[in-house]
Write a structure and sequence with these properties.
Chain lengths: 308, 279
């Protein structure tokens, strides 16, 4: 029993400070991403979410270049990017593609510049990998308060516009007819999305933030029938995948004789991807079952007579 | 105040006065005027591109009119008008939308409110009643995206009605339905119009299924409108004036057929879809 335990949790896992900080920041980022991600998937804005990840990359590498905390850059530029995308026209489906493409291109260009300048100045080694693919074990506990505050802001914004956001995600026309300020609600959602992408950039890297945003949410939407449940399942999947990824990465240090640990982001994304693949089986079965059972045939007149 | 007295002093549910709309430099609606009284069932009839959707969006306040006024219950229309319910022409409900029929109906009640809904017995009871009123009980818990077109239409009608509007706007609700489902929706709407005392304005390019239930018709063609009881509006001279060229109104096997020729005067050259769909 004890052997199994130490085999799963290699020595020092629970007492390691970097692991604890990673578990907190990663878990929080995963939950926020799951909450916004459910709406991202419902609104068909995955590509927009990815573009914000690239904006975050530019922000993070810029912050690194001038010696600021990358989180500040991730979130700061992300918010500006969200505003720009909204202005160009992220609301219309056609305009959305356009806005996404333009912002994404500009952001990657900026990242290339900033990362080049950073590597030339020689201030930090491994900066590109840290910004693009994350290095959750290097986060210091001093970052945790900022992470928590940003998370609370993002989740509270979504909760505040929950119903209007839901309705305008289903149909902007229905929402507008109910008097919902569709545009304002959409902008607020984009800002919350920028914050959540910034947080997951910190956890798994700017490029991989899309995986944390879309994966758990898409999996949850396959498995559930109401938004409430989708949200709960997405949060569990996101946090679960993050923690499992952290554990696997920690353990991977002991796998090879050379003690060469593998990147956390790889494991987190791999677990999310596996989860999505596996969810296909029950979802397909449930869909087949729904077709048979969810909509029973209308009661025959004879039945109604008997009931009456 | 007695009921008769009350309804005598009630303003019209909807007054549209001289509404014109220009889009992209083109005049879509030109001086459209009509009124709808409480509980009346009105058909908004016109060929594709006549401006039906545009007119409904003006009434809702989603589209700005270049000229004219819209008054709802005697008040100038405001942005949020709880006394209007709306079923848009195209609502694409994705099959992986995590939403049951009853959830979508509930959003009709409080979708504009901020914050998250608290579980409420009263709320779910109101939703259950509304679903029952549109015969949607048996798919109340199915995902909306998996429902058939006719079933979705019922759910959307319930969504629009649950806020107890005095006017219900439906944009081509029969467009994707087979004859039988169409008839079911029409009789459902006629029943609700009477029992809940809600005026119905329903757009369609095919008027025949509506003839038994319509109190009035608003006929749109070439951006202009004629309104009144169906038998007075669906006349060759009225519609010819509207179209701006000669139009025939044929009665075939108890159905009405509007045969609108082209402006070049080739009478035989029907504006085909309209004539065919009207038959
Ligand atoms: N935003 C717009 N810009 C320019 N023209 C427009 C715009 N919206 C609608 N139109 C034009 O206005 C006319 C009326 O459109 P509308 O959608 O109101 O017609 P409709 O009667 O609802 O047609 P259908 O039966 O096909 O639904 C069409 O010719 C359409 O091309
Ligand atoms: Mg239309």
């Amino acid at each position: 029993m004890h052997q199994l335990w130490t085999w799963v949790f290699e020595p020092g896992f629970f007492s390691s400070a970097p692991v604890r900080v990673a578990a907190v920041t990663g878990g929080v980022a995963a939950v926020v991403s799951a909450v916004t991600g459910v709406f991202t998937v419902m609104r068909g804005q995955s590509f927009g979410g990815h573009a914000l990840g690239d904006v975050s990359a530019a922000g993070g590498s810029g912050a690194l270049l001038v010696g600021l905390n990358p989180l500040l850059g991730f979130v700061g530029l992300g918010i500006i990017g969200a505003g720009v995308m909204d202005t160009i026209g992220v609301r219309r489906v056609r305009g959305r593609d356009l806005a996404t493409g333009i912002v994404l291109g500009a952001a990657i260009g900026l990242s290339a510049l900033f990362l080049y300048l950073t590597s030339v100045s020689g201030a930090t080694t491994g900066a590109p990998a840290q910004i693009l693919f994350g290095s959750i074990f290097t986060i210091t506990s001093a970052t945790i308060p900022a992470v928590v505050i940003l998370s609370v802001i993002a989740v509270a914004s979504i909760a505040a516009v929950w119903r209007p956001l839901l309705l305008s995600s289903v149909s902007p026309d229905l929402a507008a007819a109910r008097g919902v300020p569709v545009r304002l609600v959409g902008l607020l959602y984009m800002l919350a999305l920028a914050v959540s992408v910034g947080l997951s950039s910190l956890a798994v890297g700017a490029i991989l933030s899309t995986a944390l945003l879309i994966g758990p949410a898409a999996t949850a939407l396959r498995l559930t029938r109401t938004v409430g449940w989708a949200l709960a399942v997405a949060c569990l999947l996101g946090a679960g995948a993050t923690w499992l990824g952290i554990l696997l990465a920690y353990d991977s240090y002991y796998w090879s004789a050379a003690h060469q640990g593998l990147p956390v982001s790889f494991f987190i994304v791999a677990v999310i991807f596996a989860g999505y693949l596996f969810s296909g089986f029950p979802a397909a079965r449930a869909a087949a079952g729904r077709r048979d059972a969810a909509v029973p045939p209308p009661a025959s007149p004879a039945h109604e007579k008997i009931a009456a | 105040m007695g009921l008769a007295e009350a309804s005598a002093t009630l303003p019209d549910v909807l007054q549209v006065g001289g509404v014109s709309v220009a889009l992209g430099g083109r005049k879509i609606l030109d001086d459209v005027s009509f009124t709808i009284g409480a509980g009346e069932f009105t058909g908004l009839i016109g060929p594709n591109g006549a401006g039906k959707t545009t007119l409904l969006r003006v009434i809702l306040g989603l589209q700005r009119a270049t000229a004219g006024t819209v008054a709802v219950l005697g008040q100038p229309r405001s942005r949020r008008n709880p006394s209007i319910g709306y079923v848009p022409q195209k609502v694409l409900l994705d099959s992986d939308l995590p939403m049951r029929a009853r959830d979508l109906v509930a959003l009709g009640m409080d979708g504009h409110r901020f914050g998250m809904p608290l579980p409420s017995r009263q709320r779910s009871e109101a939703v259950r009643e509304m679903l029952h009123a549109v015969d949607a009980d048996r798919f109340a818990d199915a995902r909306v995206g998996n429902l058939s077109g006719g079933e979705q239409q019922r759910v959307l009608i319930a969504h629009a009605l649950i806020s107890r509007p005095r006017l219900l706007l439906l944009d081509e609700p029969l467009a994707n339905l087979d004859l039988r489902s169409g008839q079911e929706i029409i009789s459902l709407l006629a029943r609700i119009a009477t029992s809940q005392h809600v005026a119905v304005l329903l757009s369609a390019h095919e008027m025949n299924p509506l003839l038994p239930v319509m109190d009035r018709v608003v006929y749109l063609a070439a951006g202009r409108a004629a309104s009144g009881p169906a038998d007075q509006v669906i006349q060759a001279d009225v519609l010819s004036k509207l179209y701006g060229h000669h139009v025939d109104v044929l009665h075939v096997h108890g159905r009405v057929l509007v045969v609108a020729g082209t402006e070049d005067g080739e009478g035989a050259d029907l504006t085909a879809d309209h004539a065919l769909e009207a038959g």
